[in-house]
Amino acid sequence: MRKIALVLFDGARLFDTAVVDEVWGARSGPGAELRRCAATKEPVELAGGAVLKPERTFAWLRTADVVVVPGLANVDAEPAPELLAALRAAHRAGAQVAGLCLGAFVLGAAGLLDGRPAATHWRFTSELARRHPSAQVDPGVLYAGGAGVWTSAGVAAGIDLCLHLVRITQGADVAAAIARAMVTAPFRSGGQAQFITVPTPPRDEEPLAAVRERAMRELRRPLTVSELASWAAMSERTFARRFVAETGTTPVRWLLDQRIARAQQLLESSDLPVAAIAGCCGFGSPVSFRQHFTRHVGVAPSRYRTDFRPATASSAASSTEVLNRAHELVRSKFHDK
Fold first, then answer.
1. Which helix (H) or strand (E) holds 7?
2. Domain boundaries, the chain
């Protein structure tokens, strides 16, 4: 059971608190225990006048697996010293501590952004960097972080970060199920742009969707930008530009994200050895797979499988399915030669 702490304070943004409740409330099932925490158990008035009643005090943060700080309505508001101390204590205890949108300023005030990647709403990235010059503020990404400290850009990016935290604490399948229930994208990399230059792609860019679908079917083998561009009947330069405009990320980064996501699913649901999963997902070698996976997810593939594989993995992927995947991998190796 994962313990999730939603931090409450006067002036917090209602939308961010609602995101946390949607992701870790009833939709998360029995795998998560969500509790609202504040300085006291007295009702807290959020920005806009909504009132929420805390169930725990900040002392509970030290026992939580995930601590989420909603955004501030006013970045000049001074966070309470007891909140900052509780956030530092939670991080020292091993919690994943996240600040949604302008909640990054609270984490900065607690000293948790020093020397770490950080994100916030693009209108306030300069101010965040000014106040916390040692933070590695990236004005373009959806979310950023690692080593137990995470921050997100504005509004919907908070959903992406929360789903990412579900993935690293409860597994990719749980995150995908929650995303389906919320009718939202199951996975958007933190490295994607906060805003896309072409919100609604014109008709002449529709082939890119077909390119992505084909790439997903062929993830097991090496794919280059040049090959993807040929599928779309475009020059490599034009394809790369349109791909970024449509998705907010580069073709190379998108491919890596999909390979990692596929590997997470196989680690959770199959008996395939790590080396076979590396091949199924298109990594050149098990060593390359382990390096990319560990850098992207934060733990090695074997540790990820131990943490997130169900007690009866065969119920998620039958032995027949596993053998079929293995046979396909073997056939592809001989065919490629």
1. strand 2-7
2. 2-182, 200-337
Kindly report the backbone phi and psi dihedral angles of residue 5, in degrees, each rounded to the nearest multiple of 5, phi listed first. Answer: -105, 120
**Which residues face 141 on adjacent strands?**
193
Helix (H, G, I), strand (E, B) or coil at 123: helix
The per-residue pLDDT for range 1-56, each reduced to its tens digit, is 899 999 999 999 999 999 999 999 866 566 889 999 999 999 999 998 999 999 99
Give the strand pairing for 51-52 and 44-45.
antiparallel
Cα(136)–Cα(30) distance, rounded to whole angstroms? 36
Q: Is 223 helix (H, G, I), strand (E, B) or coil?
A: coil
DSSP 47: T
DSSP code for 71: P
Q: Give dist(CA 165, CA 149) in Å, integer.
A: 11
Q: Cα(170)–Cα(304) distance, rounded to whole angstroms?
A: 10
3-state secondary structure of 88: helix
Q: How far is 16 from 103, CA to CA, in rounded Å?
A: 9
Q: What is the pTM of this model?
A: 0.67
The beta strands (E) that lie in 29-170 are given as: 32-38, 44-45, 51-52, 56-57, 66-69, 96-99, 117-118, 136-137, 143-146, 149-152
Domain 200-337 CATH class label: mainly alpha
The helix/strand count (H/E) of the chain reads as: 14, 11
Give CA–CA dist 37/56, Å, rounded: 5
Residue type, 54: P
pLDDT tens digit string along 255-278? 998 999 889 888 888 888 999 999
Three-point CA angle 231, 235, 240, nearest 5°: 85
The residue among 16, 96, 27 whose CA lies nearest residue 36 is 16
pLDDT value for 171: 84
Homologous superfamily of 2-182 in CATH? Class I glutamine amidotransferase (GATase) domain (3.40.50.880)
CB 112 within 8 A of CB 87: yes
> Is the CB of residue 188 less than 8 Å from the CB of residue 46?
no
